[in-house]
Amino acid sequence: MVQEQINNAKSRMQGSIEALKHELATIRTGRANVGLVDHIKVDYYGTPTPLNQLATINTPDPKMITIHPFDRGAMGDIEKAILKSDIGLNPSNDGQIIRLAIPPLTEERRKDLAKQVRKRAEEARVAVRNVRRDVHDHLRKTEHEHDISQDELKRAENDLQKVTDEHIAEVDRLGEEKEQEVLTV
Q1: Is the pTM of this model over 0.85?
Q2: Are 50 and 77 within one domain?
Q3: What does the pLDDT read at residue 185?
Q4: Measured distance CA(1)–CA(139) in Å, rounded
């Protein structure tokens, strides 16, 4: 029963880390990355469809993203979706391929993006701590109902804290890596 709770906490904390990885992939750096446009939804025949299901997305060089739609009729819809998105890039269309040129970031923009990275990392830390709190409360309730002993509760609390510390360290590492990536010219 106690180990189930610890395993549950691990999987929920891992989910928070995966969500952070996904969010950090959408933050623009000075280099082209398909993660910048993967999350964009295109209104394709009235259905919001992820861009990566409508086109092949490549990065031929560090300053360019190319989008090659499977259906040329979707070019206009893809361009509209990119313009409506929050990535701040202007698509250029030659009838076959949509190109997104990645301009260099200004120092001020780099600092703003670094703040966003720190904010999202802190949100992930809070999510991990909330999981710990939920599981800890459940363990105390279980001990209060005399389903487990105080010794088992202490061991479980120590195990839970170790798991939490590992996941917080992973969040910190991911945040620092992305922040360095953003601040690197």
Answers
A1: no
A2: yes
A3: 67
A4: 9
**Interval 173-182: pLDDT, tens:** 999 999 988 8
CATH of the domain at 57: 3.30.1360.40
Rounded Cα distance, 54 and 79, in Å: 12
What residue type is 167 in one-letter code?
Answer: H
Query: Rounded CA gap, 15 and 159, in Å?
Result: 19
Label residues 77-111 b or e (16+ Cβ within 10 Å = b). bbbebbeebebebebeeeeeebebebeebeeeebe
pLDDT under 70: residue ranges of the chain: 185
| Same-domain pairing of 177 and 130 | yes
Q: Which residues touch 113 (CB under 8 Å, ≥6 apart)?
A: 27, 28, 29, 105, 182
Q: What is the DSSP string of 103-141?
A: PPPPHHHHHHHHHHHHHHHHHHHHHHHHHHHHHHHHHHH
The answer to whether residue 30 sits within a structural domain is no
Structural domain of residue 67, as residue ranges?
35-101
What is the pLDDT at residue 174? 94
